[in-house]
Write a structure and sequence with these properties.
It is a single chain. Helices cover 44% and strands 20% of the residues. Strands 3-2-1-4-5 form a five-stranded parallel sheet. The structure holds S-adenosylmethionine (SAM). S-adenosylmethionine binds next to helix 2 and strand 2.
Length: 171
């Protein structure tokens, strides 16, 4: 199934998100993981409208090439990098905000990546993850098959929450 979200709806939603959840009103450094088309636009939108430096990363060279083309000529501080977020190392306390949507389902070793997130975030920084979760207990065979076929790593909310809590306590 493919869903087309009108640009203005996405950006209104994004503006709400930035203002209410992330509090991006002053110079901030933010990182986005998993930069496909809609996401590239969001990175650029953040950098253009909220006076923030944005780093957008993705494993896919095609996505990053398109993203770089999009920023040519724009006056905003956004950089895109083709990198595996599980291998990349940023210095401690680099980002005010780390934001990822629909990319964590591809990550097998979430605990290690979550630990890195907390290291890369500045003290008091914000980690915002929007991703898929399974309901606790058994799920339908159809759903199980879909997850297996896609090679996704999807857990229930409690398991994800526990992984985040453990990672936070390690840093
Ligand atoms: C389902 S797409 C979601 C893209 C985007 N966040 C959005 O909401 O439109 C998942 C993206 O995560 C990227 N990705 C998967 N594993 C990754 C990794 N280890 N490091 C960086 N990006 C990764 C894929 O290349 C893909 O572009």
């Amino acid at each position: 199934m493919s869903v087309v979200v009108p640009e203005e709806v996405t950006f209104t939603w994004l503006k709400f998100l930035m203002l209410m959840l992330l509090g991006l009103t002053s110079p901030t450094r933010s990182e986005s993981i998993g930069c496909r088309l809609w996401y590239q636009r969001k990175c650029i939108y953040m950098a253009e409208n909220f006076d923030v430096d944005v780093v957008g990363i993705d494993l896919s060279i095609n996505m990053i090439s398109l993203a770089i083309e999009r920023v040519i000529g724009l006056k905003c501080t956004v950089e895109f990098e083709c990198v595996d977020c599980t291998r990349k190392i940023y210095p401690k306390n680099t980002f005010d905000v780390i934001y990822t949507r629909d990319a964590m389902l591809h990550i097998k070793d979430k605990p290690t990546l979550f630990e890195s997130f907390y290291k890369w975030l500045k003290h008091g920084g914000t980690l915002l993850i929007i991703d898929y979760c399974k309901r606790a207990g058994s799920i339908s065979l159809e759903c199980e098959e879909y997850i297996k076929k896609g090679g996704y790593y999807i857990h229930d909310m409690e398991a994800d929450y526990q992984m985040l809590k453990n990672a936070d306590s390690m840093t």
